[in-house]
Amino acid sequence: MAEPTEDVLVAELRELAGWLDVPPPGDLRPGVRARLAVRPRPRRRWRILVAAVAAALLVAALPPARAAVAHAVTAVLTFSGVQVRQGQPTPARSPSPLPSIRSVALDQARKQARFPIGVPASLGVPDDVQLADPGPDGAPRVVTLLYRGGAVRLDEFDGQLDLAFVKTEGPPEVSWLQLRDQPALWLPTAHAIAYVDRNGVTHHETARLAGPTLVWSAGGVTYRLEGISTLDEAFAVAMSVS
Predict the structure, then answer these.
(1) Per the domain annotation, does 181 fall within a domain?
(2) d(C-alpha 106, C-alpha 39), whole Å
(3) How far apart are CA 140 and CA 126, in angstroms?
């Protein structure tokens, strides 16, 4: 079969726009079922690939309300460098730490990081500050503040990263909320988490079972607060970061 011309591809992409329209708030199930019932013509299989690519871009680009719809359809949601996938969590029994992790003083971490490091006033001085996945210049890709003997951790990284953490959960229990007029993501139940390094390699050996987590962005930095069991307390800690 001949490959489609550029003009045909443009026309098909415009036609595909109809597939990506999100209905107004309400019951989305009838519309989703109707779209899933549409079957592509047998000789135009390349359109399936176009739709898949467009769906992936949709997940990354949509605002929270529409991204939640995409998550329900594609089982993949990406928000500020954190990707949430539906599936069976399979963390390692003895997970390894993040790549090239080392402990430093807070002021030293602030000198080496290429993004501002926020500290939650409600938690006080961290028990430990860790730098991970350094670049050629020594600047860390991730800075982690540990509290309560390591039971609570605040991972911080550049909010412009495409992907830094992959979370795998069971039944979808993701909740959206507003934090300082910005979207935030709350995962209330335990889920598997793996790290994606600066080369795009997912380190499954670092996979572990994470506790309740709140993810948000502020000032160009993404924060991932883990280990606080209630949304109210996690929200208060997030609001105290400065």
Answers:
(1) yes
(2) 56
(3) 18
Within a domain: residue 79? Answer: no
Taking Cα atoms as reference points, which of 207, 168, 206, 217 lies closest to residue 189? 168
CA distance 76 to 182: 21
8 A C-beta contact, residue 129 and residue 102: no
* 10 membership: H or E segment, kind and range: helix 6-20
Q: pLDDT by residue (tens digit) across 188-235?
A: 887 888 889 999 988 775 556 778 999 999 999 999 999 999 999 999
Q: Please state, in angstroms and rounded to a whole number, the distance separating the CA atoms of residues 116 and 221.
A: 7
- What are the tokens at 59? 């997940």
Q: Tokens standing for 24?
A: 């107004």
Q: Residue 207: what residue type?
A: A
Same domain, 60 and 89: no
Domain that holds residue 45: 6-74
Report the sign of the C-alpha dihedral through residues 124, 129, 135, 139, in that order. Answer: positive
Phi and psi torsions of 193, nearest 5°: -135, 135
List, for residues 10-36, the tens digit of each pLDDT value: 555 555 444 444 445 455 566 656 655
Count the domains in the chain. Answer: 2
pTM for the whole structure: 0.68
Same domain, 214 and 105: yes
Looking at the structure, do residues 10 and 69 belong to the same domain, yes or no?
yes
Other CB atoms within 10 A of residue 235 CB: 18
Same domain, 39 and 20: yes
